Protein: VOC domain-containing protein
Amino acid sequence: MKILVQMNELLAALPSSMASLLSSSLTVQPHNHKVNQANVGAIATNTPLSSNSQNTVGIGRTRRCCLLLKAKLSAEADVVAKESVTLGSADDKNDFGVVSMHHVGILCENLERSLDFYQNLLGLEINEARPHDKLPYRGAWLWVGSEMIHLMELPNPDPLTGRPEHGGRDRHTCIAIRDVSKLKAILDKAGIPYTLSRSGRPAIFTRDPDANALEFTQVDG
Structure:
């Protein structure tokens, strides 16, 4: 499109007879971004000269404009073609087939204490198909819909104190649920502190026994 605009600007500066000839002969292919250089070259070299001496200066100026136009269009077409190849290569390179989130790893100090929170309080079920004895540390895989949480009994490099009161301002894992009010009642009964979404949407933030921030956001359906 940019090339066509610049072509029209150059044609407007030419004598009407030559502009008519050029506009009917110059061709830019919009789909493959290649300029019809054969047509431009033919116009630049084979345009007949008038025998009228009064038109000599105008014709010379026209030929120079044709040559400049040919060079400019050729250079810009090459740039467009290179950009198209670069973008296509980048798209292919980055398309490695993302499917979904598979699991989130959460560190804990004591596996039994964490299981009491995630399994007994939140009602998450253990994925028995995942191996627990092939890793050099204790752990458990818990179903969260079709994804999982992997509890890992390992030292936590993060400080347990000084964390933001509102989990939405901290690193957190977000779980989609059907009823925030029901979860709120469960946390109230267990005496577990929480905060509500600052934006007013139906979401609640709390922390597990190891101060890992969790968000539960209500979704429809």
Remarks:
- DSSP finds six helices and seven strands in the chain.
- The first helix runs from residue 2 to 12.
- The longest strand covers residues 147-153.
